[in-house]
Amino acid sequence: MTDKATTDAAIDTGSALERRIDMTVVLAEIDKDVEQRLKQMSRTVKAAGFRPGKVPMKLVAQQYGSQARSEAIGAAVEKAYGEKVREQNLRVAGYPRIEPKSDASPGQLGFTAVFEVYPDITPADVSGQAIQKPTLTVTEAEVDKTLDVLRTQRTTYAGIDRAALTGDRLVIDFVGRKDGEEFPGGKASDFTVMLGGGQMLPDFEAQLEGVRAGDKKIFDVTFPADYQAAELAGATVQFDLSVQKVEAPIVPEIDADFARQLGVADGDTDKMRVEVRSNLEREVKKRLLAKVKEQVMDTLLKVNPIEVPKALVAMESEQMAEAARRDMESRGMGMKNIPVEPSWFGEQATRRVKLGLLLAELVKARDLHVKPEQVRAIVDEFAETFEDPKEVVRWYYSQPQRLAEAEALALENNVVDWVLANAQVSEAPIAFDSLMGNAA
Fold it and tell me: Which tens digits make up the pLDDT trace of 312-328?
């Protein structure tokens, strides 16, 4: 394609990030390019009755003329678009949308390329911004609470011959009938329910209090008016209940057997506490950093209000939707009948794109680039919880994608450290249960 194909290319600024380039291409130059393309094709085109390379040009043009013209026009438009983008030093986000124009001069074709550009970002001053840094020192009290949680997680149950109490586990059969007829979802056998766990409707669970193994009961339950199944909303039904088992919880004691369950081979409970404390301190550190990082990112978004390209948000939304699909599939959920729409992730994707652009500019403006030793420190921290840390380190450095995750985390940490060094930071103690998300 010659330079004569492009006779005009003008930029129009339609909005903050949208740009429009009007272009015209000369038909005569398009025709020349089509002819060249057809000649190139004719060397390999096959047709019945002709040897390869001997097919008449007229026949080649009849068969491939439309394809050649489409390719020639596309090449001319792409060339004009690329030249103007480079000339104006535009940072294009996503791909252009090409629209035909009807007002071109005779002998020309007119087009408009519509696209978005990256925003120009000058990181704002954060010196006046307040950030509260949560603090927590792990003591023996936190170790005790963690051990209690670990004990509860390892609760077993044993059948007992007494009336059911809150916290007991029951195995029941039941059949529900509405107007004398069984209804969908109202029947179960060998069904396990935790008394006091809120698993069943309150009226149903109330009937389980004080039951014993072998008990049978018939009782009415009225469904809430806003119940999800419309045919049962506000309806009163009758349940026929049979209690198979009442099982009491058995919470393990903190002894050698419990220590061995937690991976201490010799059952030494003192070693167990040391390991639990070490793991807890590591987890507390991670959660404290996460809370600070969230505040830092919120602060950056507040002081740097920017518009981001819709194309980048759309791509990020699609990636998040695909990640959600893979996660669900890994959990054994069939995805054929479960739609995951990118639009569900629009707000989260917009935040990610904004932060990605802001962090990139901050790193350049403040020279916050990641150093190899910072990445190695993060990889070492990841690896130290495994049995063979050296093997884990080798695995990270042999997997570019995994190493990129460590690099991204190191970059975020550099940004967080810079903001904390320049903002108004105050420390505030945080309760252990609040930090760990434990129920009151």
Answer: 999 999 999 999 888 88
